[in-house]
Amino acid sequence: MEEGWIDACAIDDIEEEDVIGFEHGGHAYALYRTLDDRFFCTDGLCTHEQVHLCDGLVMDTIIECPKHNGRFDFTNGKAKGAPVCVDLKTYETEVRDGRLFIKAG
Amino acid sequence: MARPAMIIVGSGEAGGCAAVALREAGWEGPITLYGEERHGPYERPPLSKELLTEKEPPKPRPSAEAGRFDELGISHRPNSRVIDIDPAGKEISLHSGQTAHYEKLLLATGARARLMSVPGSEYALTLRSFEDAWALRHLFGAGGHAVIIGGGFIGLELAASAIKLGGRVTLLENQERLLSRAVPAELAQRLHEEHVCRGVRFHFGASVSRVERRAVILENGERIAGDVVICGIGAEPETALARKAGLRAQNGIVTDDRLCTSNPAIYACGDCAASVHPQFSDQPMRFESWQIAREQGALAGRNMAGANERQSIVPWFWSQQYDLHLQIAGLPDLGKSTVVRPLSDDAVLQFYIDGGGRLVGAAALGQLSDVARDMRIAQMLIARKATPDPAVLAATERRLKTLLAA
Ligand SMILES: Cc1cc2nc3c(=O)[nH]c(=O)nc-3n(C[C@H](O)[C@H](O)[C@H](O)COP(=O)(O)OP(=O)(O)OC[C@H]3O[C@@H](n4cnc5c(N)ncnc54)[C@H](O)[C@@H]3O)c2cc1C
User: Where exactly are the transmembrane stretches of this chain (chain A) (predicted)?
Assistant: First the structure.
């Protein structure tokens, strides 16, 4: 695989419509799986209060921050309204042989 | 004549949300937000928590809306205390002597720390504003012994912050247990144990007879000396303006389910308002909660712009002490039975079900990572007036999320 891609987890480590956390090089990421088996990756911390998003609830393609229910669309990182107004950074993903790779950095 | 203008009194959490919502709901005329503080809307929850303990010099954390005022053409006037309302002339007066005419007026004046009525009460510090927190931070930073009067949320959060900074804490509570009004007994007990384990000393059933600069004297003659005395015995809604203007006020400025007061041109929301939550009761209820202040602010803004929406907010509140997060949704008090769902070895969620099987409240205590998801689902179920099967609520092997699909 080309430069910059990281083997993050087995796809079955993530349940459908759910999220897990992943750390690499001191950076926190959040990895998502949708009901129709698409995979996404964003920064792991909420832009509002630096809380781990992997503890939040996934509904469809929305992740809610566990602390104040700030909402983001994890497919594009867009903040979906107050109290969050800064978008989340997203990263490319690819599934190979049952494993999820992310393009970090 | 001037263009019709919307005026908001109080630039706190609710006032800021209302201003933005008014504009987003299509109001094109002037919007002016008057606040007596020198800051724009900022978050109060960190004042008893991170702001006291984090290393960086503290700054007020602006609410999300504050950064949008310019772009939305909202005029914010800090250091501006409103001292009078003339409902007949639809005019407010500021302490500076200026007056301003309103088309509709929103009172979002919040609450202020309740004071004790014993000799020397002025020696006890209270916490409501950024400046209050700043003063406490300096005293806490020196370590020492804090004597805290009142085992409510603010008293307990302050105790946790003082301990985190290496200080000692004695907490005086006049009831026989902590948080007796707001929190179910088992959860309050768990919080109590955590504080004891961290070294907080408690006096229950303690009634204060007098306060000195560095000591509290109890009715039984006992003298509890410390380096700082703090009073955290709750907050009182800021209703003085409303009363003077002849608006109905009891425990808060009374509003209907659209947040309109007894005067059709005047609305009220947030900590200062006692409003009707039709999905729970026809009696006005007042809350002190960040989330409610935000949602009511937004609703008041939309209704002032003409929406005429009834409120359907599910109350939601959190507190953080040490690593423990407490979250409460809905109205646990309305429950007739309780269903317990263990979330981990040290986290529990309780559901409160009314006589008709409807889920009316939920409360959880534990690490944020253990409680957050299931509490959020509980909140959604409460909003839907769901009547979930208690067996599923209690069964940890069943994902709660499946109940949302039902
Ligand atoms: C220390 C602390 C910790 C908290 N922690 C939590 C928590 O963990 N979780 C939670 O859910 N909630 C918490 N809260 C509660 C939450 O912050 C409040 O519910 C929320 O701030 C209420 O918003 P509000 O806009 O109604 O009132 P406020 O935020 O109090 O704003 C009202 C504003 O109006 C101004 N004002 C009043 N009268 C006038 C006047 N006549 N003219 C001009 N201006 C006026 C006041 O100065 C103030 O700036 C906490 C509160 C405090 C104080």
Answer: none
- CA of residue B12 to ligand 1 center, whole Å: 6
Instruction: Tell me the per-residue pLDDT of A27-83, one tens digit each, with 9 for 90 and over.
Output: 999 999 999 999 999 999 988 877 899 999 999 999 999 888 889 999 999 998 777
Question: For residue B385, how many C-alpha atoms fall within 13 Å in the half-sphere facing its CB?
Answer: 5
- Give the CA dihedral B351, A51, B110, B73, nearest 10 degrees: -130
| Residues in CB range of B284: below 8 A, 6 or more apart | B250, B252, B254, B255, B274, B275, B276
Helices B185-197 and B153-164: crossing angle in degrees, nearest 10, is 20
B336 and B282 fall within a common domain: no
**Dihedral angle over CA of B320, B326, B332, B333, nearest 10:** -50
Count how many domains chain A has. Answer: 1
**Higher pLDDT residue, B299 or B182?**
B299
A69 touches chain B (CB under 8 A): yes
Do B219 and B244 fall into the same domain? no
Query: How many domains does chain B fold into?
Result: 3
Secondary structure element (H or E) that encloses residue B236, with its range: strand B235-237
pTM of the model: 0.93
Q: Which of B179, B207, B231 is the last residue of a domain?
A: B231
How many angstroms does the Cα of residue A22 sit away from the middle of ligand 1? 37
Atom of ligand 1 nearest to the CA of B16: 25
CATH number (domain holding residue A32): 2.102.10.10
Residue where one domain finishes, among candidates B183, B203, B231: B231
What's the whole-number average pLDDT of chain B? Answer: 95
